[in-house]
Design a protein that fits this description.
By secondary structure, the chain is α/β, with parallel strands linked by helices. The chain is built from 13 helices and 27 strands. It folds into 3 domains: about 15-255, ANL, N-terminal domain (Rossmann fold), CATH 3.40.50.12780; about 275-395, Luciferase, domain 3; about 395-499, ANL, C-terminal domain (GMP Synthetase, Chain A, domain 3, 2-Layer Sandwich), CATH 3.30.300.30. The radius of gyration is 23 Å and the shape is globular.
């Protein structure tokens, strides 16, 4: 990871998030703060534009500690909306601009925001204000600073959860930041975010980079070749990726990959879903063991682990160890702690107490009686305390009495040439309880069922090999590497009933 040279560990400057654009705008007014496509916004312009937009929100009634739902696509307007929200002491709640209407309305009903910014269709409920996707701010509004206000929560993020119903995860951290603190995110130059900003990972990386005064490059969508080109064009220091993106980059032709120098790149962060070991080995060989970093954690902020490529090579498959602020233990279905190397549900506990980092709207946390909390992941600890994940608890398939973790099967499928992505689900079966069904995105290429079975027989025991296969030509995971298994499963069950 890059070393911080400009500041010592004792430097500290805590600023309200509303004041950060002005702080950097005074020090480097004409330098780019945000780049999107061929255009950029300077730090001075970021301060002025967000002041104008904040006055628009103010006129619509947004006050301190309100929620503002931001349903805007990646780009300048998304980031401007967040800073405008902070300038009124309110909390941004980002959602996908392509969110289905039913899910969007569920979120709005749960959170009761003061304002929704985004979506061009009409809203029938008048209990909140609405600015459409096409809204343009009045250039005649004052761009001078507003009175200081600081929200009790700097962000609220959405999660579908295992039930498919949305829940809101509200941070308990105030809307302020120590701009000289780097904690685990060490940015010493331009940061590239090719993922959707409404997801917690890209949001966190982009905002922390801006808070620290770095140039942030965002893209409308992920493109493997464009990602490499942007690294060279902007001298990118740090890039945020998920394994799906890494896979698509690796699948580029060797001639394409070698045409970029990528010499400025110091850190690649990957997270959000398991990375197949073969893919991680290839990236470590390509960029070096000190460049590749992995993070495991959750939006709730109960705790997180990090591991460098160098450390990972000594503990292959691990996501790291517990940090100073929390502990990890593995519990069985009866909430009894298991011995090392035995799989169970991963629980974490903060030293500063339960519920200190977040609260839910629309759901209840998964907690034990003595305050241990879970993200819903399955895994095990080795004798040195390193954590290894197997899958999500809700994704596990029980077939013929055996526990099967989709991530393991997907990792084996994804090693087949030309596979872009795969998703493994369990479908109801009278005999086995569930049968394993694989949905494979071949990106327009053709493959025979027997070929993929032969491939898997070299990598998996027989009972883990899918009984049925489905080949598609559309991406199965979004740009954050996320997949809605429940929706895929429900669709296939419904299709079977219609036959």
């Amino acid at each position: 990871m890059a070393t911080i040279l400009a500041r010592t560990m004792h430097d500290s400057r805590i600023l309200p998030l509303s004041k950060i654009p002005a702080y950097w705008g005074e020090r480097k007014p004409s330098e780019p703060a945000i780049v999107h496509g061929t255009e950029h916004i300077t730090w001075e312009s970021l301060e002025k534009k967000t002041n104008q937009l904040a006055r628009t929100y103010d006129a619509l009634g947004v006050i301190e500690n309100d929620f503002v739902v931001i349903g805007l696509p990646n780009g300048f307007n998304f980031l401007l909306a967040c800073f405008a929200t902070w300038k009124l002491g309110a909390t941004p709640l980002p959602v996908s601009s392509k969110l289905p209407k039913i899910e969007r309305n569920q979120i709005i009903t749960i959170v009761k925001p003061r304002l929704v910014h985004g979506f061009d269709d009409n809203f029938s409920d008048n209990s909140w204000k609405h600015l459409p996707l096409s809204f343009k701010v009045d250039g005649g509004l004052s761009d001078k600073p507003l009175p200081l206000k600081t929200a009790n929560s700097w962000k609220a993020m959405t999660s579908g959860g295992s039930t498919g119903r949305p829940k809101i995860i509200v941070s308990r951290d105030k809307a302020e930041h120590d701009i000289f603190s780097r904690d685990f995110l060490n940015f010493n130059g331009p940061v590239l975010i090719p993922g959707p900003l409404y997801h917690n990972g890209p949001f966190l990386w982009a905002m922390h980079a801006l808070f620290q005064g770095n140039k942030v490059i965002v893209t409308s969508y992920f493109d493997a070749t464009e990602t490499l080109a942007l690294i060279d064009e902007h001298g990118v220091d740090t890039v945020y990726l998920v394994p799906t993106m890494m896979h698509r980059i690796w699948n580029l032709e060797s001639k394409t990959k070698s045409s970029f120098s990528l010499k400025t790149l110091q850190t690649i962060w990957h997270l959000a879903s398991p990375c197949p070991p073969w893919l991680k080995h290839n990236f470590i060989n390509w960029f070096g063991e000190n460049v590749i970093w992995e993070l495991y954690g959750g939006t709730e902020g109960i705790g997180f682990t990090t591991i460098s490529g160098k450390e990972w090579l000594r503990h292959e498959g691990s996501v790291g160890k517990a940090g100073e602020d929390f502990k990890i233990k593995i519990l069985d279905e009866n909430e009894k702690e298991v011995e090392p190397l035995k799989v169970g549900e991963v629980f974490l506990k903060r030293h500063d107490g339960v519920g200190t980092t977040y609260y839910y709207i629309g759901a209840n946390p998964r907690r034990t009686n003595d305050g241990w909390e879970s993200y819903g992941d399955m895994g095990y600890l080795d004798s040195e305390g390193y954590l290894y994940l197997t899958d999500r608890k809700t994704d596990m398939i029980l077939s013929g009495g055996a526990n099967i973790y989709p991530a393991e099967v997907e990792a084996a499928i994804d090693t087949y040439p030309d596979v872009r992505s795969s998703v493994v689900i369990g479908l109801p079966d009278d005999d086995l309880g569930n049968t394993i069904h694989a949905i494979i995105d071949m990106n327009g290429k053709h493959i025979g069922k027997e070929d993929i079975i032969t491939h898997l027989e070299e990598r998996l025991v027989r009972y883990k090999i899918p009984r049925t296969f489905e080949f598609v030509e559309t991406p199965l995971r979004d740009e954050a590497g996320k997949v809605r298994r429940k929706t895929l499963r429900d669709d296939r069950i419904a299709q079977k009933k219609q036959k």
